[in-house]
Each structure stands twice: as C-alpha cells, then as structure tokens.
Amino acid sequence: MRQEIVLQQGIPSEKAKEIIKFIKDAKLKKVQAAIQGDQLRVSGKNRDDLQGVIRVLKGTDLGIDMQFTNYR
After folding, report:
1. In sequence order, what are the residues at sequence separation of 6 or more whose Cβ sits closer than 8 angstroms to the Cβ of residue 70?
2. Which of 8, 11, 26, 47 is deepest in the core (most CB within 10 A)?
3. What's the half-sphere exposure (Cβ side, CA atoms, 13 Å) at 46?
C-alpha cells in the first residue's frame, strides 16, 4: 500500500497576510509582525506579549500547522 502526501514548507503569502491581520485585530500591544520570505516574524520587547501571540494563534484554526521558535 502506498500513499502520496504533499508537504509544504513555509507559510504562503496569503496566509501570512491573514495571520498578520488576525494579530492586529486581536489588539495585542507592542508586537510587530513581518513577512520574511516563507516565514512570519513577530517581534516585541516583552516576552509575555510574544507568548500571548503564540497562545492566541494556537487557540485559533487557521487551516495550517504552525511551529513556533524563539531565538532570544
């Protein structure tokens, strides 16, 4: 038995724009979101604000699987 699957690396630009709009609509203060190639970078001064963004994004179904990395 064989099964073909399609893997996608990165976030499509349409989905990235949708996620940025969602972050802005959630009124999360002091965070900025930017599209960098096939990634979405969310930056802010306070670590608690960034964790709040992760919490909000995990609680919603955007139709894609997301991974969160922290480079601090």
Report:
1. 50
2. 11
3. 8
Q: Are 14 and 64 in contact (CB under 8 A)?
A: no
Q: What is the DSSP letter of 27?
A: T
The answer to whether residue 48 sits within a structural domain is yes
> Are 19 and 57 spatial neighbours (Cβ–Cβ below 8 Å)?
yes
pTM, two decimal places: 0.73
Q: For position 44, which CATH number holds? A: 3.30.70.860
Domain count, the chain: 1
29 vs 7, residue with greater confidence: 7
d(C-alpha 14, C-alpha 25), whole Å: 17
On whether residue 30 sits in a domain, the answer given is: yes
- The pLDDT tens digits for 15-38 are 888 888 888 888 777 888 888 888
